[in-house]
Amino acid sequence: MPAFSQEGFEQFEQAKKQIQQGNQSEAMELLRPYLDKEKFASLSDYARFHFARAAYENRQFELAKEALNSLLDTRGFAKKDDVRYLLALCYFQQSTPNDALRLIKEISDEDLKEEAYRATYNFLKVSASSSLAVQYGLFPENDGLVMALKQRLETQGSMSTNERKLYDQIKNRSFSKGDGNTFLAEKDDVLDIAIVLPFNYEGRSGAQFLKANNFVLQLHQGIKLALEQAQSNGVKLNFKTFDTERNDAKVRGILEDPFLQKADIVIGPLYPEETALVANYAAKNKIPQINPLSNIDDNINGYEYAYLFRPSIKAISQKVLNYCRKFEGRRVALAYSGTSRDELLAGSFAEMARKSGLQIVRNQKVSTRDMHEFFESLDLSANGNPEADIMVVFSDDPNIASPTFGLVESLGAGMPVVVMESWLYFDFANYDMMEAQNFHFIGNNTVDFNNELLDDFRENYLNVYKDYPTSFAYMGYELADFVTKVINDEEGFDFQKNLDRSNFIEGNLTFGFDFSGVKFNNYVPILSLVDGVLTIED
C-alpha cells in the first residue's frame, strides 16, 4: 500500500466537504488526482465513488454511471450496495426505470434497500398505471413500485377488469415498514434539512466563482455553523446543500433529488421564481419550506407549507402603525426606497394609516439625492414650522441612511425618526447621534448586541471562517438554530403544531420569535438606544 501525505488526505476530505456544501464541480476537481489506481491503490476506488456522487449531484449522469459501473467490476470494493443505489438513481433520472429496478433488486443491505424503495416511489409515482403494471410483473418485491401502482390505480377514477384484479392483489399488501398508508409517511428520528440557495445568483456555476463577500455564502456559513453545533450537542440531523444557480431547470432537478423527497424541512430559496417552484413542491409533499430573508407576503400566500423567517409586510406595517399612534401628533412623513419590499411596505402602511386616522403628509419614493428635498419639504429647520410629527423611512439602503443621518443631525430636529433595524449595521452609523436624535428601529429579526452569547458566536465564526460574521451570517445561524429547536426527535416533526404550542420563542442571538397562528415571525419590536444599549420600547 503506498504511503500518502497528510496534505493529500486533507484534499480528499476537503472534496467530501465540498460535496456536502453543494460545490460539486469543485469537489470533482479535487478528486481527479485520486482516480489514479496505480498511485493511490484502494483509495482511488473511494475517490471514484465520491466523484460519481458529485457528478450525480451536478446532473452529469453519464459521467457518474461510467465511474459507478467501473466500481461494480472492481473486486473487493466494500460499498457495492451504495454503488448500485446511486447507479439506480442515475437510471431513474435518465428515464430507464427497468435498469434502476434491476439494480435495486440486487441490493442486500436492508436499510439501503428501504431507501431505494422510497426513491422508486418518488420517481415512478407519476408513471402511467400500464407501465407500472408491467414493471410490477418483473419486480413484485419492490415496495415503492407497489405503492406507486396502488396510488395510481386508486386515483385514476375507474379500473379495467385486469386492473381491478391487480389492485385486489396489492391493496392489502404488507409493506416492510407498516401498511401501505404509512410506508411513505413514516418518519425516522433524524431531522433531515435541505438547504436550497442561489450561491451563484448571477447565473454562474461552481465554487470558484464565489467571493468572500457573497451574501448567500455568508448566510450558508451561519446555517452550517449552527447545524454542526446542534449535531455536536446531540441533535440527530442530516443536512444537504443545493445551489439553484438562478436556473429554473436546475431547481426542478434539485426537486427530483431523493434527499428532498425525504426532507423534514427546506431552507430557501430566496428569489420569487425559485421560491414558487419549491413552495409548490413543498405543498404537494407536505414539507415546511422557509424563506430566510424575505418579508414579502406573496412568497407564502397560497402555499400551505411556506413560511417567512422574518416578519411579513403586513406584520411590519401594523407594528409601525401601532407605534406611530402612540405619539401625540398624527402627521406622518413617509419615505421609501424603490425595492419591491419597501414599495409594498409603503403601500401597506399608507393604506392602514388612512383607515386608522393617521395623516400621511408626505409619501415619496426616494434616492440619495432626494433626501435633501424630502427634508426641505417638511420645513424641519430649527426655526421652521414642521409639517410632520413623525418620520418613517422604509429602506435598507446605506445610500439613503447616510444623508438621513447627516440631515437629522445638522437640523437638530427632535422629530421621532422610525427606520429599519438594518441601519444599526452600517459602518458609518453613529450610535451616540442616533440616540440623541430620536431614532427608533423596526425589529426585523434584530440581533441583540447585548447578548452574552454573541461574543461566543463571533469567536467560533472567526475560528472557522477566518473572518467576522456579517448580518447575513447572524441570520443564517439564528435560522438554523431556530429550526433545530422547533422540530427534532424530542419535540416531533410537526412544524406548525410545534410553533403554535411554543407561542413566544426566545432567540439565541436575536430578540425572539412568535409564529403562533401565522407563518411568519409576528414579533416586531420597536427598539431604541438608551445609554448606548439597544432596548425594546414595547
TrEMBL record:
Database matches in Pfam families: Peripla_BP_6
Domain of life: Bacteria
Keywords, sorted A to Z: Receptor, Signal
InterPro entries for the chain: Leu-bd (IPR028081), Peripla_BP_I (IPR028082), TPR-like_helical_dom_sf (IPR011990)
Record domain Leucine-binding protein: where: 220-488
Ranges annotated as spanning the membrane: none
SUPFAM superfamilies (UniProt xref): Periplasmic binding protein-like I, TPR-like
Assigned protein family: Belongs to the leucine-binding protein family.
Name this protein carries in UniProt: Extracellular ligand-binding receptor
Organism: Cyclobacterium marinum (strain ATCC 25205 / DSM 745 / LMG 13164 / NCIMB 1802) (Flectobacillus marinus)
